[in-house]
# Entry
Amino acid sequence: EQTDMNNNYLLRASIAGAVIGAVSVTLDLLQVCCPFAGIGFIGFAAMVGLIWYYARGYAQSCGSAGCSYGQVLGFIVVSMVFAGVLYGAVKAVAVNTFAEEEFRILLDKSMDMIKQMGIYSKAQIKQMNGMMDTIQFNPIFIVISSVFSMVFNGVLYGLVIAAFTRREADPFAEEISNEE
# Structure
């Protein structure tokens, strides 16, 4: 029974992560390819709404045993690891194929802003440009940084969301499992 519960947990977390990752990367690529005001807020609201939805569903699945704050927050973190892997993989493909030009334009704009600051020498700017080019287009770096970013956001939002979505154990339930 414990194995079934763990499989259910991972299945729920992976589904939540897949949806959150897919929505997030779609909105981010949309912002790069077709920028418009308000997409940042839409991305924030979508992520918070989806985390809330899946955390609440997980808490309800705990049944009469309840689901603690820590359990819900842990579920959010595991979900965000899955989300980060999917997000990073799709972004790595996009950055190195169909959206490469758009990402190069963004990198050039960033480097132009650094040049305008006037605090770096030409040699430093050249070195920085090479490093940024390597980092921004390296698939491994993209996936790893995406996982860290998603987990960070998940913990940040999850600290509040878990407080509202946790579920107390039902004291009137006939049988509550304390084996967890």
Notes: The longest helix spans residues 2-33. The mean pLDDT is 88.
